[in-house]
Amino acid sequence: MKKGIIILLVVVGVLLLGAGSLYGAFKSRYNNMVYLDEGVKEKWSQVENVYQRRSDLIPNLVATVKGYASHEEDTFTKLAEARSKAGGTISISEEVLNDPALFKRFQEAQSSLSGALQRLMMVTESYPELKANDSFLSLQSQLEGTENRITVERKRFNETAKEYNFYIRAFPNNIFANMFGFKERPYFTAVEGADVAPTVDFGN
């Protein structure tokens, strides 16, 4: 009788130890997923910040250029339309990170805005007085820095998203990821000419 009780206690102890180990492994993997996912969201917020910074610079840029090239209305109109589509004041929820189609549209809108800015810069080449304007030179420096920062933050986002995506896809993490709704995050993909920051040389 005592021997049977001892065996039962041993079996129960082993099961409890096994359950404890399983719980520990489960908890560790879940917490790692949360940590990596928060990293992706943090990098996304940095991407938003630099795109917002660029959007905020555009009205001042247009106002300065209009002072010297007011008749370039078509260029200004296209830039305004592109800025509007890109979200004049960017307010993009995390829904974009959960929907590859929305993410793609966001990227396309920002690329369109980059193209419109490039066209505006080409227009300024015809106005030497504009290129000597102090306000214009200041905007040049700020816009160049912002475009470079966009490239950097997009790269950092992709690197963080890649680490997260690999972790949740690896076995057995993928089982836990599916159970708790952890989904892959989309990447910024290269578009034609995206290997370098958009040209914003004002012809100094």
UniProtKB/TrEMBL annotation:
Domain of life (superkingdom): Bacteria
Localization: Membrane
Full protein name: LemA family protein
Gene3D superfamilies on file: LemA-like domain
Any Pfam family the entry gives: LemA
Residue runs in coiled coils: none
Record InterPro entries: LemA-like_dom_sf, MamQ_LemA
One cellular-component annotation, GO: membrane
UniProt record similarity statement: Belongs to the LemA family.
UniProt entry keywords in alphabetical sequence: Membrane, Transmembrane, Transmembrane helix
Membrane-topology descriptor: Single-pass membrane protein
